[in-house]
Amino acid sequence: MKTVNAPAPRRNSERGASIFIVAAAMVALLGLAGLAIDLVALYLGRSEAQRASDAAALAGAQTFVTSGFTSGLVSQATVQTLATNEAVAVGQQNFVGGQAPTIPNGNVTFDFSHAGDPVITVVVTASLPTNFMQIFGVSSVNVSATAKAEAYNPSGSSSGSQTICASCLKPFLVPNCDPNTAYKTPASPVCTGQSVFFNTDGTLAHAGLYPNGPIGETWFLHSNGSVPSHWYEIAFSGQSGSKFASNVSSCSTVELTCGSQLTVLDGKKVGPTDSGINDLIHASSDGAGNGQDSIVFASNPPAGTLPYTITGGSNNPNSALVGKTVTQSDSIVTVPVYDPATMGGPGNGDVVTVVGYMQMFIEYANHSGNDDQINALILNISSCGQSGGSCGSGGSGQGSSGTLSGGGSQFIPVRLVQ
Fold it and tell me: For residues 272 and 210, is the Cβ–Cβ distance under 8 A?
């Protein structure tokens, strides 16, 4: 049988072609993977930039409160300088792509067009290097994020349905009576020879630094020697002295809104008051200079600076802050201001009506006989304005509708609105 030699298969000439196809596909896949990695990195950088801008805006808005601007203590020019510096400092602590973001002063802007509702806007930018996109000539990409925050003080507000809910209030009551002898008008209809903190329309009767205003004024909480009596206390948790001391040294979860009615604690609770205050401010015993933080007001503070300086005491929970200037302190508290016309004599289960809030710095307590005198300085005041409603409903400021929360060292609501 004759054998016929068949020609070699054509596929012999295509040997190795698949290698080129796979190689080309791998290049494309690697390119897409590299592009995806760069895009993910940029997306992460954008999220980090937003976090930095949010933190910066909130820090700047908090300065509206801590500087006393919302209580008329400092000018717009001063608070702009303070808020800008704080926003930049805090924003740059939040790294974007492993580096501090860029926040030039021009990226921090302000809106003071709404009375009692100053707004700060912060734009954070960062240049992020690329990896695989460099093959297309793109070595870096700029990312940016914007945040807007407000500090809402309802004093004098006459529009909208504002609901301010405050928690972490200390169980002390302050009457709407200002004993500052520098002024007697408008005269208090209840407290003879005194003026008021808030007018009947909710506006502040006086603003500024003591003695021309109430900021920095000394106030004696729980003192039997003052007229009217300033030692009224709140029965947040019933008439128990131990529970009262706990409400002094820690936060009460009770939420209050303007118009809330509070039951007065029977008696002065001498002892629980003293021990609760010392626990709160980290004082080892009564009096000044026992480990608690301290405060000094400047009579003529330099332009662009806070009107007071707080120094961390030796018992400050953060050892790194001992002897250092601090902006937050457990000695800073908020208490409700009540309408004195709604209260008769001390104790006896009286009920009073909340008309505002006062932020104080507690310096020390002194136990003497049948009295616990608490020395405090006024830092901020805020009336209810025209606000009303109940917690969980209503709206406030320039943000969307809803309840705002203040109290504690926060004093008045600070929040992001964009």
Answer: no
pLDDT of residue 40: 74
Average pLDDT, the chain: 79
Task: Give residue-wise pLDDT tens across range 145-160.
Answer: 999 998 877 654 444 4
CB 357 within 8 A of CB 258: no
List Cα–Cα distances, 300 to 132, 148, 173, 208, in angstroms.
Answer: 58, 31, 31, 12
| Residue 404 confidence class, pLDDT cut points 50, 70, 90 | very low
Q: Are 161 and 318 in contact (CB under 8 A)?
A: no
- Shared domain for 34 and 111, answered yes or no, is yes
Residue 10: inside a domain, yes or no?
Answer: no
Domain contains 55: yes
Q: Is residue 244 part of a domain?
A: yes
> CA 131, 134, 135, 136 torsion: positive or negative?
positive
8 A C-beta contact, residue 67 and residue 127 = no
CA 213 from chain centre, in angstroms, equals 23
What amino acid is encoded at 319 in this protein? S
The whole domain housing 323 covers 164-416
CA distance 250 to 253: 10
| Rounded Cα distance, 121 and 54, in Å | 9
The total of structural domains in the chain comes to 2
Q: Which residue, 387, 360, 321, 400, is CA-closest to 162? A: 387
If phi > 0 it is left, if psi is from -120 to 50 it is alpha, else beta; for residue 87 that is: alpha
Contacts of 186 (CB under 8 A, 6+ apart): 195, 196, 199, 205
